């Protein structure tokens, strides 16, 4: 392949981009070639490190080769671009997670796809000519290929600034922002590369690296933090427009050139990703939601036309006035369900016990992802792609992971008694039920005694999340078991938070649902009060959903029908999360509070109210948001 030179050189696996006339732009075939190479070298004992560089003087890699995406996209074929992004993002993740040192030499322009190739390795080297940027908003895309991962980890609001201005970073800036690690004068690069290949010893970098140039970004950080402190694009625009400083006015001009929807998406994504649980895969999965939809619903094709094809530099952006509706951002960032980026992990043998409303769709998603799933349920249900067996132990036999989704702690203990003896040593028992903390810890101890891994991983997201593969898992257990189960969490959900030792997943779940139960009651009370004060529900939602009353109960699961995103309220309150299940979780929270001697008066009151609603009124069988109907009918007495 003439565009890329892949070979072994001494103790190094070497990847050199060889299309300098195209600024080493990364094609689809080049992405696949890089992935094949690093897969091959991963377990090759003769390769100690991977070295990535490029020919020519102008660029390491100035981006992805997007001409074919434009040609196919304008013809109405979005699958080519989606396939390109899926495979490229998988390669990006492998580089970020690679078990051996990955050393990249980032001379000249390193932009877009070049950042994905060169800025996720373990040792990223810059020199005097380095210019690194994520300029995607200029063509209607967001900083992808893991760009949001890097930007969300940058100091302060530097990520927002770089992400929506497309500003270039010199060597000192790149190190300050977290896009590079070391400065080595370019005159020394060739001899340093030769030393790396000869010895395979990355510690020689300590001798080669010198003090980097000063960072202009670092000097401007306090001003950038103030100008980019807003929660959304419009807030940032307002802060810039009311500031007469040179930086503010220069930045405002840059923003006026870029796609408003892409900038609004970038800001929202960085805010969502900026958390201790951030991983490269989480960022890439969210980026793929955008790239999957951006040709059909965004400005990507128009941006390419204006900048690359016609070169008129006059794109006709959506929301050209800069006012991007929140719903437009939300639609692009919605989970993709079965189309979710899956990174194509190796297949496992899985036993699944409990194939009800939640367990059934979860098992089906695992089977669709290519895993071998055997399932058992006392009701004898059958799930597409899942092999039905007659007992729990039969499902567990030979499985790498056994997943349970059961009604309560006593049933979990009984199932564990029969399943654990049937599991092979080293397998993992993954319980996704919501049960009491004591039961979770007792089963974990039982599994540990049998030389098994154990995780308690209750879920949030309801039946819709189970079907769409968008659940959140709150996980307790040791690191080794969590690492084994992590690929499965990525299929069944959009987030898995490792909360610590066994039982901590259940602790997190009951604390979370105590918050949810209390806030849903408050949300329903507020709607009922608004009705009686003559305030329309639409006005109520518009105010509260964008101000200090913001909550998941209001914004994502609004209990008032016809208001906000579609929720069970719009389907006659058929359960997404049944009121009796909320009552169960609230009672678990109060049981735990009593055991821990914790004062939880709001949780206690919410438990009592849901008990009346379910057991004495008409809440049984309805969604937990049907609490609104209760308040509509009641006065203050």
Automatic annotation (TrEMBL):
<feature type="domain" description="3-hydroxyisobutyrate dehydrogenase-like NAD-binding">
    <location>
        <begin position="503"/>
        <end position="628"/>
    </location>
</feature>
<feature type="domain" description="Enoyl-CoA hydratase/isomerase">
    <location>
        <begin position="13"/>
        <end position="321"/>
    </location>
</feature>
<comment type="pathway">
    <text>Amino-acid degradation; L-valine degradation.</text>
</comment>
<dbReference type="InterPro" id="IPR045004">
    <property type="entry name" value="ECH_dom"/>
</dbReference>
<dbReference type="Pfam" id="PF14833">
    <property type="entry name" value="NAD_binding_11"/>
</dbReference>
<comment type="similarity">
    <text>Belongs to the HIBADH-related family.</text>
</comment>
<dbReference type="InterPro" id="IPR006115">
    <property type="entry name" value="6PGDH_NADP-bd"/>
</dbReference>
<dbReference type="Pfam" id="PF03446">
    <property type="entry name" value="NAD_binding_2"/>
</dbReference>
<keyword id="KW-0520">NAD</keyword>
<dbReference type="InterPro" id="IPR002204">
    <property type="entry name" value="3-OH-isobutyrate_DH-rel_CS"/>
</dbReference>
<dbReference type="GO" id="GO:0051287">
    <property type="term" value="F:NAD binding"/>
</dbReference>
<dbReference type="GO" id="GO:0008442">
    <property type="term" value="F:3-hydroxyisobutyrate dehydrogenase activity"/>
</dbReference>
<dbReference type="InterPro" id="IPR029154">
    <property type="entry name" value="HIBADH-like_NADP-bd"/>
</dbReference>
<keyword id="KW-0560">Oxidoreductase</keyword>
<keyword id="KW-0101">Branched-chain amino acid catabolism</keyword>
<dbReference type="InterPro" id="IPR013328">
    <property type="entry name" value="6PGD_dom2"/>
</dbReference>
<dbReference type="InterPro" id="IPR029045">
    <property type="entry name" value="ClpP/crotonase-like_dom_sf"/>
</dbReference>
<dbReference type="Pfam" id="PF16113">
    <property type="entry name" value="ECH_2"/>
</dbReference>
<dbReference type="InterPro" id="IPR008927">
    <property type="entry name" value="6-PGluconate_DH-like_C_sf"/>
</dbReference>
<dbReference type="GO" id="GO:0006574">
    <property type="term" value="P:L-valine catabolic process"/>
</dbReference>
<dbReference type="GO" id="GO:0050661">
    <property type="term" value="F:NADP binding"/>
</dbReference>
<feature type="domain" description="6-phosphogluconate dehydrogenase NADP-binding">
    <location>
        <begin position="349"/>
        <end position="500"/>
    </location>
</feature>
<dbReference type="InterPro" id="IPR011548">
    <property type="entry name" value="HIBADH"/>
</dbReference>
<protein>
    <recommendedName>
        <fullName>3-hydroxyisobutyrate dehydrogenase</fullName>
        <ecNumber>1.1.1.31</ecNumber>
    </recommendedName>
</protein>
<dbReference type="InterPro" id="IPR036291">
    <property type="entry name" value="NAD(P)-bd_dom_sf"/>
</dbReference>
<dbReference type="GO" id="GO:0003857">
    <property type="term" value="F:(3S)-3-hydroxyacyl-CoA dehydrogenase (NAD+) activity"/>
</dbReference>
